[in-house]
Amino acid sequence: MTLSWLFDPAHWSGTDGIPVRLLQHLRYTLVAALAATAVAVPLGLFVGHTGRGGVLVVGGSNAMRALPTLGLVTFLFLVLGSGEVSALVALTVLAVPPVLAGTYAGIQDTDAGVVDAARGMGMTGWQRLWRVELPNALPLLLGGVRNAVLQVVATTAVAAYVGLGGLGRFLLDGLRAFDYPKMVAGAVLVAALAMVLDLLLALLQRAVVPRGLRLAARGRGRGPARVVERGRTEVAADAAMREGTE
Amino acid sequence: MIEFRAVTKRFDDGTVAVDNLDLSVAAGTITVFVGPSGCGKTTSLRMVNRMVEPSSGTILVDGVDVRGVNPAQLRRGIGYVIQQAGLFPHRTVLDNVATVPLLSGWTRRRARARAAELLELVGLPAELGARYPVQLSGGQQQRVGVARALAADPPVLLMDEPFSAVDPVVREGLQDELLRLQAELDKTIVFVTHDIDEAVKVGERVAVFRQGGRLVQYAGPDELLARPADDFVSSFVGRDRGYRRLSFVDGGGIEPAEVPTTRETALATAERAPDAWTLVLDEEDRPRGWLPPRSGPAEEAPGGGVRPGGSLYTRGTPLRGALDAALSSPSGLGVVVDEDGRYAGAVSAEEVLAAIRRRRDEAGAGAGGAA
Amino acid sequence: MLDDLSRYLGSESTRQLIVDQLVQHVELALLPLVVGVALAIPLGWLAQRHPLLRTSLLGVANVVYTVPSLAFFVVIPGVIGTQILAPVNVIAALSVYTAALLVRPVVDALDAVPGHVIAAATAMGYRPLRRFLAVELPLAVPVLTAGVRVASVSNISLASVGALLGIGGLGALFTSGFQTSYLPPIIVGIVLVLALALVVDLVLVGLRRLLTPWARAGGAR
């Protein structure tokens, strides 16, 4: 049923067709993920590098992780009024904590001896940040970005509830109309999009994480893809974030 | 030359890490700061390159107050080696070594060429340059750490427990390597360790610190073992210090005696001396072992009854080796060899003790109770 | 604003409704936490022992974790044959998420148990299963609780999405507030979700302290 819905040519054209909805979903995802990264990476680098404001950022970020997506989306819709802006604000707000946590944890995770050696050799603060801490933070930082993108893809689907476009429309419209094939097709499309984006980001992560670090991760007796996998990133980032608060 | 003038470091929580330190480190020497943990040795070291700022007092490097120099600039002119090496995991070995030249504005090509030279200098094969730190053993990483510190040819080298994280055999190799390098390079080296054996081995001068950041004795290693300034130093220097001090007693006065010898190749037909042990030599006069006297136990071990020998004593080296050779030999006689490892005679423990006594009489007073 | 809130909360029936939804939310979010932990421990144990299972299980866990919650809630009935709008869908989906999130920390934690400890336990005559329960699992508790804390926050937040499918819990406050363009229920819902997450987190921290007395003795956190 779902398959026949998906392959029906009628569903591949028009303003409510799959291509249009897919592009909408991608656009929201891209905008929110970029905006969140632009905010969270510099903040995470600053806090991680200087150690200043850690408690505030960590506490705030933890609270934000607990924010219910649907609650935030409906709240902002009622406060800011309808339209894409309120939805995009909600998406961005929800994408900030993972990136922030990943960046901060990445910097904190850098071996203390390595940072000490960098200082001892006469690197300035900036040189240390760019040449030592940032490259070492990349695996966890990009892990954070991957989490954020997944978060945004999922929340964009939820935001269809307040009228946002994207693939979530099929799901919720299908639900309202008791059109189960359409609903399930929407779910499958959203899931597929999430998986494809995650795969692409995993490849990117592979390409930009320095080889020495990948080898180091493998050397610790872990699988080759270890650094780039999620569960660890999530929990490691979370643990690092909490360290400051407890 | 590095000078500490009335240097004190008090941390924010009130603990005094370094208490009014006055000390000068002579140019071209290895000076070791040694002491238990919390004695301020590392803090003192880290104040030289401004990794830690003193609360009061002055530190001069070649007559220049370090506080007048921009920290990054200062550090690029001072080599820095730490425990675990602190190599950059994301950079190849060669690029790790090239770090300071690159920071100082060298071209990449020149910095890498220099880095390759240094790998050779510290005894690492050139092909390791393309590897990443994680692909090296602990000892190799530490060598890279030393090469990296030497890259910009700084006159001063700070080494903070550089060999503490490697196993004892590798550590000894690294210590020998450091002494060899120093003979070649003539740097001013400050070396921090908690290991008194390491301190007396590598140090030309040793500064002993105690808890609370107080310098209790600053002397040559021989002096330190012979005349500890107080009970703290004496207990820190530890047991066997009399024996260990023999490492610094010149063995020139030893007179090796002749013993019966035989060739390894002639073993089958060799006559065993009636009451004396016979030393077995190979074709090139190198000692191979001892043959027991005829009156002794007549068990037939493989090799025609030849017993493995003890340690060998190279003529002219400190007396510790001579005593050890005598004590470890099955015959009770230490084998003396020349610089090429050829048989040059044998020496008994009694003869070594006599040599020690002669030394003490010559010196007048106070060589610590040997043996 | 505050007037609105107090008017909204002033009604006895509203308060009763909120309490009911809170209770249902706790069930929707925390039942999966228990199920997920119960699934993840044996799975992690298996994965840690067999290299092939390790790669495949961790791979599957990774993929499962990418599936957006709303999509998952909708696809579950097709997989396990439940009613499309049944709460059990949400519970099943969140259980799978929790397990997927926790398998890796379990494996990591087991990897981190020092070899000499295992060797000592084996030398004293522990069989593998007994050793796992008596030695390895307790040592894994700190890492495991770190994972459970992440999962609990995530579950409590995600359970509210179920409201889009008409499955209650605090999420229902968001949908009803949106449909009537009325903020108070939404605010109450957000506050309660945050508070619930905080309380559960504190309970988990307390649980960890209780389960790992040696960590306190050592002066560790």
UniProtKB/TrEMBL annotation, chain A:
Top-level taxon of the source organism: Bacteria
Annotated PROSITE patterns: ABC_TM1
Transmembrane segments: 28-48, 69-96, 148-172, 184-204
Mode of membrane association: Multi-pass membrane protein
Subcellular location per the Swiss-Prot or TrEMBL entry: Cell membrane; Membrane
Listed Gene3D superfamilies: MetI-like (1.10.3720.10)
GO biological process, one term: transmembrane transport
This protein's UniProt keywords: Membrane, Transmembrane, Transmembrane helix, Transport
Keyword Transmembrane carried by entry: yes
One GO CC annotation: plasma membrane
ABC transmembrane type-1 domain residues: 26-201
InterPro entries: ABC_transp_perm/SBD, MetI-like, MetI-like_sf
Record family assignment: Belongs to the binding-protein-dependent transport system permease family.
PANTHER family: GLYCINE BETAINE/L-PROLINE TRANSPORT SYSTEM PERMEASE PROTEIN PROW, POSSIBLE OSMOPROTECTANT (GLYCINE BETAINE_CARNITINE_CHOLINE_L-PROLINE) TRANSPORT INTEGRAL MEMBRANE PROTEIN ABC TRANSPORTER PROZ
Protein name, per record: Osmoprotectant transport system permease protein
Organism: Streptoalloteichus hindustanus
From TrEMBL, chain B:
Keywords from the named record: ATP-binding, Nucleotide-binding, Transport
PANTHER family named among the record's database cross-references: OSMOPROTECTANT IMPORT ATP-BINDING PROTEIN OSMV
Enzyme class: translocase
Pfam families, sorted: ABC_tran
EC number(s) recorded for this UniProt protein: 7.6.2.9
Keyword check for Transmembrane: no
Protein family per UniProt: Belongs to the ABC transporter superfamily.
Domain (ABC transporter): residue spans on this chain: 2-237
Region (Disordered), start-end ranges: 286-309
Official protein name in the record: ABC-type quaternary amine transporter
A single GO molecular function term of this UniProt record: ATP binding
Species the sequence originates in: Streptoalloteichus hindustanus
Automatic annotation (TrEMBL), chain C:
PROSITE patterns: ABC_TM1
Membrane topology: Multi-pass membrane protein
Top-level taxonomic group: Bacteria
Transmembrane segments: 29-47, 59-80, 86-103, 156-174, 186-207
Protein name: Osmoprotectant transport system permease protein
Family named by the database record: Belongs to the binding-protein-dependent transport system permease family.
Annotated ABC transmembrane type-1 domain residues: 22-204
PANTHER family: GLYCINE BETAINE/L-PROLINE TRANSPORT SYSTEM PERMEASE PROTEIN PROW, OSMOPROTECTANT IMPORT PERMEASE PROTEIN OSMW
GO terms under cellular component: plasma membrane
Subcellular location: Cell membrane; Membrane
Origin species: Streptoalloteichus hindustanus
Record-linked InterPro entries: ABC_transp_perm/SBD, MetI-like, MetI-like_sf
Coiled coil residues, start to end: none
Keyword field: Membrane, Transmembrane, Transmembrane helix, Transport
Pfam families membership: BPD_transp_1
GO biological process, alphabetically ordered: glycine betaine transport; transmembrane transport
